[in-house]
Structures are given as structure tokens and as C-alpha cells.
Amino acid sequence: MNIALFGAPGAGKGTQSAALVDRKGMKHISTGDLFRYAIKNETPLGLEAKKYIDAGNLVPDAVTIGLVREELKCVGDTGFILDGFPRTVPQAEALEGLLQENGKTLDQVLFLEVPKGQLMSRLTGRRVCKSCGAVNHIDAKPTKIEGVCDICGGESVQRIDDQEETIANRLDVYENSTAPLKSFYKEAGKLVELDGTGPTDEVFERIQEVLDRN
Ligand code: ADP
Ligand code: ZN
After folding, report:
1. Ligand nearest to the CA of 154
2. What gap in Å lies between CA 17 and CA 80, rounded to an integer?
3. Which of 5, 15, 48, 53 has most ligand 1 atoms within 8 Å of CB, for mutation?
4. Residue 39 Cα, ligand 1 centroid: separation in angstroms?
5. Would you identify the CATH topology of the domain 3-115+163-212?
6. CA-angle at 170, arms to 182 and 166, nearest 5°
7. Which site in 64, 104, 138, 163 is 20 to 30 Å from 123, CA atoms measured?
8. Is the CB of 38 under 6 A from ligand 1?
9. β-strand partners of 195
10. Residue-by-residue pLDDT tens, the chain, 214 positions
């Protein structure tokens, strides 16, 4: 089963992907994580991507598509979760070709629906461990000691693009560039809309239910 998780910034794509990896052993392909990894390692890709990401803009399609092409080359038969890709119609079109190259299909696109009013607080309150990437939230899932990761003791900080001014831009970019993908996948008969609100394990159960139907 190969799926894409789709939804606004803060809809919970990363959190739910992590749960799917844990419980189903699926391969997680997160373009956001791949970019952040490249930035941390100061690779040419990272240096290029950083200027877009910090401003809350999209990394150009050609760069992003090239990155996903490399990742798809090394997926096995465990199934994969695309998280944060595709994010534009041209990316979705390119994905069709990439899948074909690898003899894979995308089975379903799960759209996590969260009202706009909840996204801002989810994102401004998000904290991410600099060392292990664990995600917390200052109200919903605080670390035991403020600023310190429970798992590895690393520094738990706010992402640069989770600052309020940048979030507003990311939500606009989402509305303009990514939301149109909803009708793209609806027409393809692959879209499944899910309620992304409430506790994370309840959202996971909704996802599980959809996957079990197949
Ligand atoms: P979120 O879903 O919370 O916005 P991500 O970690 O998925 O966070 O993405 C962070 C940033 O990485 C995006 O704002 C964008 O700049 C860049 N990015 C991630 N995926 C893509 C993509 N498919 N196309 C272009 N840019 C992307
Ligand atoms: Zn950590």
C-alpha cells in the first residue's frame, strides 16, 4: 500500500507518518524532513532550499521532484508514505512519471482536514528536537523540562518557519498552491477525506480504518 498524506501545514502529516512507520513498517518520505536534513548538513541542496523554507515559500518544483526521484529509487515492498509531496499540481503530474519509472502506484491520498483556526496554535506551539527530531507541543504534548527533549536530552526548539509571520505565509501558499491538489486527486478517484482534529491516536484510528478497507 502506497499512500500520500496531504493537508495544511500543522494538519499532523508528520505525526501520523511516524505512527504508520512504527506500526506498519512503511517507508516515510517527507520532503520537509529531507530538506531539513540537507540544511543541517549544509549540502548544496540544503543551502538552496534554506532560503525558501525559512521564508515559508515552496522550494522550486524541479529541485523537489529531483529529490523525490532519488528517494523512490530505494523503496522496497514495504509500502511508502509520501508526506508533504506532492504539494503543487506540477509535482503531482511529475509523480505519475516517477512512479511509472519504478513500477509503483499511488493507492490513496489521505487528506487530513483541520480547520484553519486550529492550525496557527498547532504550529506556533510546535517544538522539535534538534538532535533526534522528536516533535512536541507546548500545550498538547509538552516536554517534561522546557526546551529539553524527553527522548534524547537534546535541545527542543521552535522551527524558524514556525514563527507566526512565516506561518501566515505558509498557510497562504498552501491555499494557493497545494489545496488545488484536492480536486486533482478527487478526479483521479484517490482522495479520502479524514477528520484531522482531536487526539493523535484517534486520528490514527481513522487512518487505520481507511487502510484496512483495502
Ligand atoms: P509543513 O507541512 O508543516 O509545512 P514540512 O516539513 O512538510 O512542513 O515542510 C517545510 C517546508 O519545506 C515547506 O514550507 C516548504 O518550504 C518545503 N517543502 C516541503 N515539501 C515541499 C514540496 N513538496 N515542494 C516544495 N517545497 C516543499
Ligand atoms: Zn531528541
Report:
1. 2
2. 10
3. 53
4. 13
5. Rossmann fold (3.40.50)
6. 170
7. 64
8. no
9. 113
10. 999 999 999 999 999 999 999 998 899 999 999 999 999 999 999 999 999 999 999 999 999 999 999 999 988 888 999 999 999 999 999 999 999 999 999 999 999 999 988 999 999 999 999 999 999 999 999 999 999 999 999 999 999 999 999 999 999 999 999 999 999 999 999 999 999 999 999 999 999 999 998 7
For residues 107 and 201, give the distance between their C-alpha atoms in angstroms, rounded to a whole number. 23
Please give the number of the atom of ligand 1 that sits closest to the Cα of 174: 4
85 touches ligand 1 (CB under 6 Å): yes
Q: Is 86 left (phi over 0), alpha (psi -120 to 50) or beta?
A: beta
pTM: 0.92
Distance CA 186, CA 171 (A): 21
Going from N- to C-terminal start, the domains of the chain cover 3-115+163-212
- Kindly identify the ligand whose nearest atom is closest to the C-alpha of 152: 2
